[in-house]
Amino acid sequence: MRRTVLGAMAAAPFAAGTARAGLAPSRPLIVNTLGELSDPNFWGEETGELASDRVIRDAIASGTSAINLTLGYVSGEEDPFEVSVRDIARWDEVIRRHPASLMKVYCPDDIETAHRLGKIGIIFGFQNAAMMGSDASRVDVFDDLGVRIIQLTYNVRNQLGGGSLAPEDTPLTPFGREVVERLNARRIMVDLSHSGRQTCLDAARAASAPICISHTGCRALVDYPRNKTDEELRLVADKGGFVGIYFMPFLAHERQITSADVIAHIEHAVDVCGEDHVGIGTDGSTTAIDDMKRWAAAFAEDIRRRRAAGISAAGERPDSFLFAIDMRGPEQFRILADKLAARGHSQRRIEKILGLNFLDYSRRIWSDPA
């Protein structure tokens, strides 16, 4: 099979075990700005194991250098603060058990170190700031625990603002503004994924530092609430922020997405934001599914539960899976790179999209001021 120039360059370095000698690797630096270290073959099951050996091997084989890993409270009846603190402790223990493969990310240099050593840099991130309760000083607690990205809302409304499913276009609340100010002061990334339009615009304007949308699509292409309008995307980019495009069903209307949909949304985001502000936040795993029929049944049941809980977004369907059907498993980033190259994108632009843009964004947020 004919391969692109980038594909030929990247194929060997994407293999597991690359760069274990501690030398600077030739493979591209890849940051998944919202992803998972989970095994989809156990969808909906409580295995008692976080980040199995297979999952870690697959993530390394995919070429992933760092991943924004969701932990802590997202939704449900449990106490958000307690859940979040407990989950941080669990993932700290996972990282301690796998020192040769995983490392916790606190700063931009850690992403580069993980890349150089062939490890997976784990960025602790929240997808809901409900654990702040009514006390913005809790930002300091989570900063001290190593949380580097905090998303203000999930799909529904919370005390900070509106999610994408809120029935009205809820603005950022006064408490939300207080939390944004505190996040900026502690140099934690403010994530506006899942937010409603007005909350997103308000937060981007209120922030004194660039904000991000770690995983989204473009609403100009597919009009689902989970996708962002050009107004939101442009404002984030104009203020020096970052936008990650996901591999989620919201990239197409009522059908299974393919790599062509992912690329269409990446290209639109580049047109709106510029090539220095766009990356990838797949919202998925790099482990392949062994039994698709079994997985599809478990996925359909999860959609039913999410709908019953009122947190299922428009576009979530049992027949629209959480990945591009022709771009999944450990090969997904190599496939994306090859397809972008075939579309005429330069090697430099592709490297930016795969991870360099997020690395640059992290320097604007996490680095100590001069």
UniProtKB/TrEMBL annotation:
Any one Pfam family match given in the protein's UniProt record, by short name: Peptidase_M19
Keyword list, A-Z: Signal
Signal sequence range: 1-21
Matching InterPro entries: Metal_Hydrolase (IPR032466), Pept_M19 (IPR008257)
PROSITE patterns listed in its UniProt record: RENAL_DIPEPTIDASE_2 (PS51365)
Taxonomic superkingdom: Bacteria
Gene Ontology MF: a single term: metallodipeptidase activity
SUPFAM superfamilies reported in the protein's UniProt record: Metallo-dependent hydrolases
GO biological process: proteolysis
Protein name: Membrane dipeptidase
Organism: Hephaestia caeni
